[in-house]
Amino acid sequence: MKNELVNYILNHTELSNELENIVIESSNIRTYKKGTLVLNEKSIANESFLVLKGCIRSYLIADGEEKTLEIYTEGQPIMPKNYGKELPTEHFLECIEDSVVNAGSKAFEEQMLQKYPQFQSICRIIGEVIMSKQQELFFSYKLASPEDRYLHLTETRPDLLQRVPQYQIASYLGLTPQSLSRIKKRLLN
Amino acid sequence: MKNELVNYILNHTELSNELENIVIESSNIRTYKKGTLVLNEKSIANESFLVLKGCIRSYLIADGEEKTLEIYTEGQPIMPKNYGKELPTEHFLECIEDSVVNAGSKAFEEQMLQKYPQFQSICRIIGEVIMSKQQELFFSYKLASPEDRYLHLTETRPDLLQRVPQYQIASYLGLTPQSLSRIKKRLLN
């Protein structure tokens, strides 16, 4: 399991054998059962996560309704709202499946970067990749029609359609379950 | 003008006097006239920018229409699509006003980080701030109704309404100019 963390880093940048061992030794792997609420809107978000296995949904409650913000699966980093700040996070994190994550914290990060400054550039490079992916995702969401958004999901993350309940997929796409059903019917014809 | 770059960094993290001088010496300030196309969809995006003064719009052309992706003003970083990759950027960058920017490139960044590793942590910290702001922007866009999006803009960036043509504001909010007019009328009543 631990090697997943190393693989994630290697997907983005190089890692010396020495650093690879440090990553393995310092990893903080945690296992959650399906249904676990990893974070509650009122909590302080001290931790960020990398999903190693499973599926975790972030959402908030507005006007009494759950609004799905993101659905994280293998290889995706989770940075909760207000991470590292002394403020309630306002978001929920819920395991849609049994999940395995690596957990980090600002304090631990700072400590590691102090001790092993070689991680500075690794963090910076991976940060840039995440930033650019996030920007792309936002722009493509903004430009796409609801139907295109659904099609884009079927192309880029087809597994989600099997793993996540339909009403959560709808909410993730910014749609009502009814609109999503209509779109799917239209596309079938 | 150059101090704007230092101020930007100081807004997010500390900077020793030595590093402050290095930032000033290594800055690459550029001035553009209103209407300048800083980047064309077919170009390779070798440079990223920090807007020091003025207003720059990023857009793409889809189905023969300009779609505004982002409007950058003072203190906002611009990372064009495919920045640092050997691929056409697919986006345009156009100056809505006479503008002053600091321009950077991956090669120059790497060179600076090699020479002054102290910048690693500064880049990482600022990257995290940008990432978290970007995520917030995406989530709030996703959750908001068109009317709420407009209201959010009037609260968070009221200057844009004076600086940017109405049809570009509409496109930025994912609306047609007609829908935006209707929303504005409704809110006036």
Salient structural properties:
homodimer, 189 residues, alpha+beta, four-stranded antiparallel β-sheet, 48% helix, globular
Structure, explained:
- 2 copies of one chain form a homodimer.
- Chain A has 189 residues and is α+β, with helices and mostly antiparallel strands.
- Chain A has 8 helices and 8 strands.
- Chain A has helices at residues 3-10, 17-26, 106-115, 118-143, 146-156, 158-163, 166-172, 177-188; strands at 29-32, 37-39, 47-53, 56-62, 65-72, 77-78, 92-95, 99-105.
- In chain A, strands 1-8-3-6 form a 4-stranded antiparallel β-sheet. Chain A has a 4-stranded antiparallel β-sheet with strand order 2-7-4-5.
- In chain A, strand 4 (56-62) and strand 5 form a beta hairpin.
- The interface between A and B is medium-sized, with 29 and 29 residues.
Strand content of chain A: 15-25%
Low-confidence sequence ranges of chain A: none
Number of helix segments of chain A?
8
Q: Give the topology string of chain A: H per helix, E per strand.
A: HHEEEEEEEEHHHHHH
Q: What secondary-structure arrangement, pairings included, does this model have?
A:
The structure is a homodimer of 189-residue chains.
Chain A: H1 3-10, H2 17-26, E1 29-32, E2 37-39, E3 47-53, E4 56-62, E5 65-72, E6 77-78, E7 92-95, E8 99-105, H3 106-115, H4 118-143, H5 146-156, H6 158-163, H7 166-172, H8 177-188
Antiparallel strand pairs in A: 1-8, 2-7, 3-6, 3-8, 4-5, 4-7
In short:
In chain A, 48% of the residues lie in helices and 22% in strands.
